Structure formats: structure tokens, C-alpha cells
Amino acid sequence: MQLVIRGDGPATWYDELTVTLKVLQEAVAKTNAGDQPSVVADLRCRAQHAISIKDYRACLVDLGTIAEAALVQLDPSHRPRGTLGQKVRRVREVGVPLPTDIDTALVVLRNQVLHDAYSPTRTEAVRAGAIVEDVVADVRVAIGFIAEVGGEPAHRPQRADVTAFRSA
Questions:
Q1: pTM (global) more than 0.90
Q2: Is-contact 51 31, C-beta < 8 A?
Q3: Residue 117 located in a structural domain
Q4: Domain assignment present for 93
Q5: Collapsing DSSP states into helix, strand and coil, what is residue 96?
Q6: What pLDDT digit, counting tens, does each position of 92-115 carry?
Q7: Please, are residues 74 and 58 in contact by the beta-carbon 8 Å criterion?
Q8: Average of per-residue pLDDT values in the chain
């Protein structure tokens, strides 16, 4: 059994969520036990909410933070410092394929929002979200690979809420 929660528009990253009954039961049990979602899950929900209330600036800020956390996990050096653009370059240098428009549709756009008080359009926010979903999916694959070959969490005192991995 699956529960599908949909927004009013077509099924996209920002307005549809599908969970199995087992996942829903686990989430309820964790919530009842006082557990909280990861910062990435929380930011994704915030970005989805921001889209729904047409706060595209807040959406881009949260999406940029999610992208940075994901890119650190894809970078073999696991260097948490640096700009979003620098993290994209480091990940590309090691051969990880990223969406071709990540620089313009996410990095530059997020920087315009933060530094130039730019107000993005819904179309821009939706595309940035799709890019971030692709990057996060790559992290899930990488973490699955690490789990198979062995690995351990890398210490990240700056972001205790985000766990990166290094090979064992």
C-alpha cells in the first residue's frame, strides 16, 4: 500500500510525495519517540512549502543549502568549506556527472537571491529544485555504494546535522 500526497499541479518534486505504509508507520513511530528529521529532509519540506506559498527566494536559499550538503558527500576530499560554485567544480573534477545547467539554474541563481536581492520566478525555483533532486539522488547512489564496500562517517564539526562519508 502507498500513500500519495499531491498538490494541485502535475506530479513534480515540489508537489507530490509517495510513501509506503511501512515508511509512514516508521515516521509516525519516530515522531512519537521524539526523533526529528534530518536537516536535509527538513529543508526539502521547507522548499516545497515555500513553492506552495510563492516564496521563491526562501525556496532557493533552502535548495542551495541542500545542494551544498549533497555535494560535500559526492566530493572525495569531503571539504566542507568553499562556495556552492567551488563545490560544484570539485565534484565535476572527479568525474561526477551533474546537470548541465547547474551553474546557471542553481549556483548563479542562488547567489543572485542571496547577494543581489533577486526575486526568482516560479519556473526558476522549480528548475533549481529538479537539479537538487538529481544531485541528492546521486548521493543516495553513492551512499548505497559506500554501504556495500564499507565506509565510515567523516567528522564534520561545522555541520553536525549532515553526515558525509569517506572510504574505510
A1: no
A2: no
A3: yes
A4: yes
A5: coil
A6: 988 888 999 999 999 999 999 999
A7: no
A8: 75
